[in-house]
Amino acid sequence: MSTERKTLEERAQMSDIDRLRHSCAHVMATAILRIWPDAQFAYGPPVENGFYYDFDMKHRLTPEDFPKIEAEMKKIAKENQKFEWKGVTREEAKAMAESGRLGGLSERPGNPSRFKLDLIDKIPEGEQISCFQNGDFIDLCAGPHVGYTSKCKNVRLTSVSASFYMGDESKGQLQRLYGTAFPTAEELDQYFVQLEEARKRDHRKLGRELKLFHIDEDVGQGLILWTPNGAIIRQELQNFISEELRKQGYSQVFTPHIGKLQLYKTSGHFPYYRESQFAPVIENDDLAKVIKEGCSCCETYDRLYAVSEKLRSGINERAGREVIPADRVLPDDKLLDGFLLKPMNCPHHIKIFDSQPRSYRDLPVRLAEFGTVYRWEQSGELNGLTRVRGFTQDDAHLFCTEEQVAAEVLGCLSLVKIVLNTLGMTDYRVRVGLRDPDSSKFTGDAAKWDVAEAACREAAKTLGVPFTEEPGEAAFYGPKIDFVVKDVIGREWQLGTVQVDYVLPVRFDLSYIGPDNKPHRPVMIHRAPFGSMERFCGVLIEHFAGHFPAWLAPEQIRILTVSEKSEAFASELHAQLLAAGLRAKLDNGAEKIGAKIRNAQLDKTPYMLVIGEKEATTGSVAIRHSKKGDLGVKPAADFIASVLEEVRERRM
RNA sequence: GCCGGGUUAGCUCAGUGGUAGAGCAACUGAUUUGUAAUCAGUAGGUCGUCGGUUCAAAUCCGACACUCGGCUCCA
Known about the structure:
alpha+beta, Threonyl-tRNA Synthetase, Chain A, domain 2, BirA Bifunctional Protein, domain 2, 4 domains
C-alpha cells in the first residue's frame, strides 16, 4: 500500500477503470454488511488489476463465502443505486463515525467506525471532507465514483488474505478481500483467460517441465538446486556478464561463503539485520567452553551479540556519533566470536581492497565476484527462484574517489542496460531510492547525500527510460538506483541495483593516499546488474516463456531421424555439432517424425534437424525452428556456421 | 512470522467413510515411419508426516512439514 496520500486533484484524475473498481469496492462493502452487519471497514482502493477492501469482523472469510457475497453484489448492481456525493464538516464526519454510520448501512450503537475515525484525523486541515452514499451504505470517501451501481455488475471476487491496518503490524490484523471488475462481461472473462495463459509461463511450472532447477524439502526451503539444464543457462549468463566486466576494467575475485561474526559487527549488518540472517556458527571449542561454564542460551547469544570496547570506540569515533551503544560492550574475555554465513559480499571485498596500500592512481578499484549469500527470508515470502534463502549475486564493489562517483555510477548503469538490451528485456522501471530526511534510518553527512543523490538522479536521466524518485527507499548507507521488473502475475521484483555508500568505508576505516600524500576516504559503489542469478533466471524464464534464444538454450539442436535408415549420417552429424561446441542431442528412437517433432517442440529446443534419406545422401539438413517453423534445407556445414554465429553474437 | 487455500503415481488430475483410478511420461515388444501424439503390453502408491474419532479413514478432527495467494519484511 502506498503511504502517499493522494490529493483531491490527483483523485479527480482517476482513470475510468479505477473509478469503476473503486465503486465496486463500495458495492462489495455494502454486500458484506448485508450479510455481516458488524463489519468495520478501513480502506478500499482500486489496485492494478482490481480492488480490495480491508475490514475487521467476527466471521472469518474463506473462498466458500465468495458466491454469497458476489450474489449480493449483483443484487445491489441490479438495484441500480445512485452514488451520491455529500460534503460534510469534520464534526459531522466524526459524529457519523462515532455512531457507527460511516462504512455502515445504518447507525450501529456501540460499534463506532473506528478506522474511519482515524482516517478523518489523517485528513489535512482545510481539505473538503466528503462521503459517498449508495442505497443505505455511507462511506467516508473522496471519490470519484461511477454514477450508479448498475455499472458494477461485471465483477468477481478473487482472493482473501490478512493485512495490517496502514501496513503496521502493531495495529492489528484485518481481512482483505480482493476482487476485480471490468466494464463488460467479455473483458472480465478475457482477463481470466489471460491470467490462465500467463500462468503457463510461470517459472516454477516451466522450471519443472524443462528440468531447470529443483527445490528439495530435505535440503531446505528456498535453497535452489540447479539441475543440468538450468546450470547451462546460468553459466552462459555468467560468461556473458564476465565478458562485459573485463571490457569495463573489473577484476575478478573469489571469497568464501562464511566470515567471522566480528566482521559483520564492524560492517553493522550483525546485529542490525540479525532477524534475516542464518544463526551464527559457533566453534566447537567455544561451544564446549560455554557448555562447561553452564552458560544459558540467552547468555551465549548476548556474548555473540556483544562487541569489544575497542571496536565500539573506533567506529563511534570515525562516525562522529554513537553508532554502537555502550550497552552492547562486554569485557574481551566474555566475548564469543563465531562465523556467519555471509549475508552479503561487501565485507570480504572491503578486506581485499584493504589488504594493501592504495594510491589515488589505483582508483577506481573494481572487484567483481559471483558471490553466494544467505539470508533468512520469512517462510511466507519464499517464492520459486525469485525469493530464496541462498543466492548468488553478480556482485561487485567499486572503490573510488568522490570525484569519480558520478562517472562510475554511469558505467554501472550502462552495464545494466547492455545486459537488459541483449536479452530483449525492455519492460522494466527504474527507481531512484532517496533518503527520507525525516527518518533516522539514514546515516551520514547530509552534504554527501545531496551529492550522491544528484549523481544518481543525473545518471538515471541518461538511461532514456522513465524513472521514479522514491524518498525513503534508499539503503541506510546511501542512495541507490534499482531496476524493477514484473513477473507473470504482475508482482514486481528488484533485479539490478547500483548503490552509493559513504558509510562502510568509515566503519572499516578505509583510505587511499591522495596526490597531497595524505590519506583520504574512498567512496564505495555496490552494484549487481542481474541482482541475483536465481531471481534473474526466474524472471528470464518467464520473459522467454521457456523459449530461450540459441545461446542460452540448454539444448540448442536436436537431430530427428525419419527412420533408422539415416541413422549413420545422423550420428556423424551429431558428432560434428558436438565438436563445434554446440549443445545437441540425437533422437533416433522408434517414433514417427511427427512425434519426435512434437517432443522437441515441447522441450522448446530452438533448432530441430529433420534427417531422412534425402538429407543423408546430400549431406544436408532440413531445419525447423521451434518458433519460426520450417526453414528449408541447407548444407550441414552452412547450418553449423550460421548457428555458431548466432550463438557468438548472442542473437535473440 | 501472520491470514486463507492446497498436498492422491515422475507430471496433470478424478475419487465425500466400505478392496486406490485415468491420461501423459517411464519400461518391454511390434512398427521403419517426412514436419506437433503408431499400436499393444508391463510396471509404478504407507493417498505429505504424526496422532485422534470409527467396526472401517485418501475421505472426519488435531498438530506439524511443505506449497500457493496475499500481508509484513527485503542490507
